[in-house]
Amino acid sequence: MSGWRQVAIIARRDFVQRATSKPFLFTxxxxxxxxxxTGPLLADAGQPDPARQVGVVGEPSATFTASVxxxxxxxxxxxxxxxxxxxxxxxxxxxxxxxxxxxxxEPPPGALVWQSEPDLxxxxxxxxxxxxxxxxxxxxxxxxxxxxxxxxxxxxxxxxEIVEPTDPRDTAEEAAVFVGVLLLYISVILFGxxxxxxxxxxxxxxxxxxxxxxxxxxxxxxGKVIGIGVLAVVQIVLLAAALYVVARQVVPxxxxxxxxxxxxxxxxxxxxxxxxxxxxxxxxxxxSTVTRQEDMQSVALLPxxxxxxxxxxxxxxxxxxxxxxxxxxxxxxxxxPFVMPVxxxxxxxxxxxxxxxxxxxxxxxxxMIRLAxxxxxxxxxxxxxxxxxxxxxxxxxxxxxx
Length: 402
What we know:
Layout: H1 3-19, H2 22-45, E1 52-57, H3 62-74, E2 79-84, H4 87-96, E3 101-104, E4 111-113, H5 120-141, H6 146-153, H7 168-205, H8 207-211, H9 217-250, H10 262-287, H11 296-317, H12 324-331, H13 336-346, H14 351-379, H15 389-395
Parallel strand pairs: 1-2, 1-3
Antiparallel strand pairs: 3-4
Helix pairs in contact: 1-9, 2-9, 3-5, 5-6, 7-9, 7-10, 7-11, 7-13, 9-10, 10-11, 10-13, 10-14, 11-12, 11-13, 12-13, 13-14, 14-15
């Protein structure tokens, strides 16, 4: 059987084993379910407030009515003016909950009657409309014409010019890149530990001894990383589909436009795959040095020493993409899979920096595969106490490579 055939069989076995496990299925269903449930909730939260009923005692002027509508539009309210015979009947309807507030127009400047706590937005609308009506009356008493009073009380707003308008496509690209970095961060931690757990389970049950009688260690390592990596991609696709459904429910139809090009998506996927491969083989190598699941946490901390700084620097790079720290972190592995995509989306990255980052990351990933493969080969058959990295390296010298 060819080596690639062996790797494919191992990858399929690990994928099916993890994908059909009850804990994974339950967790995946729970996450997707929660994402889908948030759609209707967010859609309801984004709906405008219900109309406010305003009981009015007195005859409102045309200026007052127009001002109410103008001020209400600014704070996204829909007040409805309801005429009342007198204050007593207005208070009765206020107590019954038929109106939200009673507005008494006479004598000036008027009064607002609330049942308990005032609605600050509605109070602002009504107060502003009363003041505008009073100013209009004062201007009329001075002999100004309506047009003159309008220019005095509501002068024209200055024109606004933007030298460098923001392209909505840039915002969409920045959001897409940051989501990609976040998914890489989650996938490395979650599925990296899946890889480590799979290695430890096989080692503790001694199943690995049977497998290694037919398969070379580095092929077993590659199959595990590929199988669980594909599972990570499947989970991300399901989450992306759920988020798409939620977005269609929340975002208005006329504003729904993901202006993200195919090139950017390919770049995000490329950085994700290489970054995940780098960390997954590291998790597998470290998992081969322990036999018990209780010892996993002690070795699982090592990858986090690189994952956490990379994610935090990527977050910092959104506001300062050309800073010294983001620049260095975007070029040097193992932080470059997190930082470089953000810098590329937010700012202008010189081509030589991007090229150097890609070359260094690919070289580091290849070196990590070779290093992890050797550590894995030397430690996978050691049953008992935890194996040091030096011992695993020395033991690998006696393992056949072909």
